[in-house]
Amino acid sequence: MSARPPSGDIARGNRRTWDTWSDGYQQKHGELLRSAAEAWGLWRRPEDELRVLDPVAGRDVLELGCGAAHWARSLARRGARVVALDISLAQLRHAGRHGRGDPVRRPALVQADAHGLPFAAASFDVAFSDYGGMSWADPYRTVPELARVLRPGGQLAFCTNSPLFAMCWDHESRTLTGQLRQAYFGLHMRRVAPDAVDFVLGYGEWVRLFGVHGLVVERLVEEPPAADARTTFGDRPAEWTSRWPIDVIWSVRKRS
Fold first, then answer.
1. At what angle do helices 89-98 and 7-35 cross, to 10 degrees?
2. Distance (Å) of CA 54 to CA 212, 223, 254
3. pLDDT of the residue at 140
């Protein structure tokens, strides 16, 4: 397992990187993310098909790594009380611009580091992340924080990189291959830009980490792309993702 840098160093580097990336990211991916607001992963698997999330109407919901907050706004329109958190102020500016026309049903926007959530214990019924804070912050710090802020019986649902993606990614060509490039054991932190890292764990380590903090796995979703699926990430080819899972969706629950 790689040595863990201080959480403040991770946060500062990822914040700087996402503040730099934000405009280009929204220009390239924003339309698809907006049109498929409640959807998971690279290939935007619709939530109304997968049915991962608990019912949200009248409940307190936290999104970790909201970006432009399309999903958070959609849940707010369905009656959830949503807090949309992101480490990047530039991303939250996009979220604020998109939310101007819907003043009643919009999430509260919070800039914060998922390593230290600025909320009281037992504040939320549901926490979720789609390639957000659960991918860009250290699980050894985010999982205990989420266990703290969830109410007993509360749900954590998130989509993040599959271990196979991390093991088959070729850093030099920046593409996926059909060969293993990295060991499975010891997966943790990946350098994805000069000043940014993301995180991926093996399945057993995720399960162990959940259990240590009182979270029970209820479901793990691995799906190939649908025949008509679209993505704006050209370095994740459909041919690869139709053979191996590129992302995984976890649903875990805090013990009552």
1. 30
2. 23, 20, 13
3. 97
C-alpha Rg value of the chain to the nearest Å: 17
Tokens of 255: 């013990």
Residue 128, SS3 per DSSP: strand
- How many Cα atoms are found within 13 Å in the side-chain-facing hemisphere of 125? 12
Contact 139, 242 (CB under 8 A): no
- Per-residue pLDDT at 2: 45
**pLDDT greater than 90 at residue 145:** yes
Q: What is the dihedral of CA 30, 34, 36, 40, to 10 degrees?
A: 60
C-alpha dist (Å) from residue 121 to 8, 95, 251: 22, 26, 20
Helices 203-212 and 139-149, axial angle in degrees (round to 10): 40
Q: pLDDT for 162-196, tens place per residue?
A: 999 999 999 888 889 999 999 999 999 999 999 99
Following CA atoms 48, 200, 4, 204 in sequence, which dihedral angle do they give, to the nearest 10 degrees?
100
SS (H, E, C) 59-117: CEEEEECCCCCHHHHHHHHCCCEEEEEECCHHHHHHHHHHCCCCCCCCCEEEECCCCCC
Closest to 169 (Cα-Cα) out of 140, 127, 198, 132? 198
192-210 pLDDT, tens digit per residue, is 999 999 999 999 999 999 9
Residue with tokens 């970006």: 67
- The edge-to-edge listing of strands for the beta sheet with 247-254 is 108-111, 81-86, 60-64, 124-130, 150-161, 247-254, 215-221
Token code pair at residue 234: 């050209």
